[in-house]
Amino acid sequence: MGRWEPDARGRLERAALELYLERGFEQVTVAEIAGRAGLTERTFFRHFADKREVLFWGQGALRDIFVDTVAAASASTSPIDAVAEALAAAGAIFHERREHARRRQAVIDANAGLQERELIKLASLAASLAGALRRRGVPEPAASLTAEAGIAVFKVAFVRWVSDPGEPDLPELIRESLDELKGALITGVLANAPTTLNG
Amino acid sequence: MGRWEPDARGRLERAALELYLERGFEQVTVAEIAGRAGLTERTFFRHFADKREVLFWGQGALRDIFVDTVAAASASTSPIDAVAEALAAAGAIFHERREHARRRQAVIDANAGLQERELIKLASLAASLAGALRRRGVPEPAASLTAEAGIAVFKVAFVRWVSDPGEPDLPELIRESLDELKGALITGVLANAPTTLNG
DNA sequence: ATAGTGATGTCAGTGACTGACATCGGTCAC
DNA sequence: GTGACCGATGTCAGTCACTGACATCACTAT
């Protein structure tokens, strides 16, 4: 047996989510989280940069899936389709964690500061995605725009998936949402310049 | 003459931007900002919810332009074109404030917390935009997706406009970026289902 | 053994933010 | 006019997120 109980970071993560669910993010002090995990406040801040980050640690895995899937897409795949593959692959890993995702999202939805943190994580994902597209030869600003559109699709699909228990799989919702976005943008193009489409 | 110097809020805004530029956001205390404005720390927090908000107060006007322009678009205008009109209208109001926008953005770009605040303001704009589209009869999730795509276009265009002095007008950049996004999404559609387009 | 090493604890401090109460010109009812 | 009220500001004490410096001590390598 080691000098300390194992998995201090995991204990802190679980204690924090429990307490945030019980009383709300603002009503919980870091000292309480650390106490429930059998640690001290100072140790909490050695594992997480701040009180919010404890809910977001582990996003690195998601970024890796995005980047690797885009990089692995066949050379003939269009940028938006490469992004679609990445979104579906990322969506798949939530399959087993739907209840956990729902609980976590309930905490985030109740606090503006946590929403801010979530948004900057998504923006960081979009930046990584744009970088992966650039490495495929997609020029700016197309790379950033495609990446931002992809993250927007992910956001909208995720909200639907989390909020409605009857919704289908997340990857399925992502496909539907992407088609919906394409339709919404193309409607305008068809209406404005229908004769040029097959030129 | 009144009991106090006028425009306390404006004095706080100007003092904060000056100090953030001189020494960086984190190296400035609220007490210093208030002192330069001839006020106390407590009064700062009566005008702004927190130290970051002093850079973002006034976003309400932007939201009004977005919402009003979408509401005023003719009934035959497609959702994405209504959003495009709103983005161009919003972009136009930055015309006279390019230097101010550049200075402010330099401060924001140097601090993660300020970027978080900027992102939640943009997300709030997207939500307002989606609401305006719903009031035109656009169903979900098309309304949210169109709004998010519009904000993504605005973000990308704004970054280009602020970072490159040689760039054209912001409304012009917004139009270009939107066309670029349409092209990026439609490429896939044309490649996958070219025969159905005029069906 | 002895000298690290690394995760943790202890402690003192800074600064953002809040609640309660005081101040005091200006304004309004009468 | 005068007194009641109002609203922007000041004062003060407090909480809590977060940080830096230093101590501890089981474990490990030599």
Would you kindly provide a written description of the structure presented here, covering whatever features stand out?
- 2 copies of one chain form a homodimer.
- With 199 residues, chain A is mostly helical.
- Chain A has 2 domains: 8-51, Homeodomain-like (Arc Repressor Mutant, subunit A); 58-187, Orthogonal Bundle (Tetracycline Repressor, domain 2), CATH 1.10.357.10.
- Chain A is 70% helix and 0% strand.
- Chain A is built from 9 helices and no strands.
- Chain A has helices at residues 8-23, 30-36, 41-47, 59-72, 79-92, 98-109, 112-135, 142-163, 170-192.
- In chain A, helix 1 (8-23) packs across helix 2.
- Chain A is elongated and about 60 Å long.
- Chain A binds a DNA duplex (30 and 30 nucleotides) through helix 3.
